[in-house]
Design goal:
- With 99 residues, the chain is of the alpha+beta class.
- It has a single domain, classed as AF2212/PG0164-like (Elongation Factor Tu (Ef-tu), domain 3, Beta Barrel).
- 17% of the residues lie in helices and 44% in strands.
- The chain contains 2 helices and 6 strands; from the N terminus they run E-E-H-E-E-E-H-E.
Length: 99
């Protein structure tokens, strides 16, 4: 993770309402604003930004996505991570991101 900016926050995991919906944690708006102001140049199509994420003992390569309706980034939590760390909907998670 050397040379990357580290962010830490806590957020509640939620499930999108669509069938088979994805699970996400929403980044705090102030943190999203800071990331967007300083690192927006790293965004790819549809507001996607590559990151390294960590929850508990699990670290993985993923991306955050800027949600224009919520005006914040969201971090998808795939099934593999949820199972490994026994994460439930509405659970508050301590998250580390490296961008």
């Amino acid at each position: 993770m050397q040379g990357k900016i580290k962010y830490k926050y806590s957020a509640r995991m939620w499930k999108h309402h669509s069938y088979g919906g994805w699970h996400f944690v929403t980044l705090p708006k102030d943190l999203s604003k800071e990331i967007r102001e300083n690192l927006k140049f790293q965004e790819e199509a549809w507001g996607r930004m590559k990151v390294m994420a960590q929850i508990e003992d699990t670290t993985w390569e993923t991306a955050i996505w800027f949600d224009t309706k919520m005006e914040t980034y969201v971090l998808p939590i795939k099934a593999e991570i949820r199972k490994k760390e026994k994460i439930e909907i509405d659970q508050v998670l301590d998250i580390k991101l490296w961008i």
